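Hi C.,

You asked whether I'd gotten around to modeling the 181-residue construct. I have! Everything is below, sequence then structure, no commentary in between.
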Amino acid sequence: MYITEDIKTTGRKRKKYDLKAGSVSLCDYYGKQIYDALIYRKAGTFRENAFSKNGFKKNSLDCPSAQPIDVVKEDLRQILKGKLVIGCALSNDFESLDLAFGEYSQDAFDLQWHYYDLSYSTEGNPIIERWALRRMCAELLQREVQKSAIRNASEDAQDTMAVFRDVTISSEPTEKVTSII
């Protein structure tokens, strides 16, 4: 069974690049949301200026509906076991949950491993520019997504599945795609 995952992160105060999960969403093969959770973060422990991308305000994650990180991790462990997890930049998402990449799933497929531009520096060194989900949807599905600056984990998980289902496994097989079919 295929499941797409998306996590919206927030940086912790004092640590510019220390991203921690703020919300997680999972969708099935048909794009139906099967899991959605806010992750509890104490107010003031993350950068509120990240609102422009992830929508988290000062008290967004310090609320009764937010789940403790351990509860979310256990939920993910149960849901993802034995599934193929599809996403964009999956290693960053798993890291934001303090997990080893692939810890909860036997297999993972990162769309950014498949969709990228390759160029070379003047010294002849390869430069890989991985496509963002927005570009994948625009170029592969001819659909504009993430129209507002604030991104939503649920919508991104659905869009990720659409790229995987409607383009990746439906297109001319490549070595990467053939290995998962």
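If it helps when you're writing up: The domain at 2-178 is CATH 3.30.420.10 (Nucleotidyltransferase; domain 5).

Thanks,
B.
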